[in-house]
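User: I'll paste a sequence; please echo it back and then give the predicted structure.

Assistant: Echoing your sequence first, then the prediction.
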Amino acid sequence: MKRAIYPGTFDPFTNGHKDILMRSLTVFDEVIILVAHNRNKKPLFTAEERVEMLKETFQQESRIKADKWEGLIVDYAKANDIGSIIRGLRPTGDFEAEFQMASMNKRLYPEIETVFFITERDNYYVSSSLVKEIHKHGKVIKEFVPDTIYNWIAKKGKI
């Protein structure tokens, strides 16, 4: 069984993330969306809430799991016998940072492979940071996030 992790803060999980995830299922038998802790970001939701949102969003897809992790991604991969990391690339300068991260991960865990998916045209410009910024200024973000994520934001009183 080919398993992969799709790490990120996912705050919020966007339709761009969803596109990468769904296309990754054509390559992998199971994908674990790994909500990672990033000390440099101030999330709208706790890691636990983000995991619950993702479980609800993908409850009909048995090949998608959600988990959280505060350590190095490669340590999670080692501990769970996972050989691949999924990353999305937008035409916005992602490549250099992603290449550096993939190279370091390979150095720390030689068995790991990073698989890059190019973002589809409709999602080139979509990022969690931009979605939060648009939302903060009172604009509608429904077209940028899955319905379940939008509903969680609405329930929390963030809309």
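The chain has one domain: 3-155. The longest helix spans residues 94-108.
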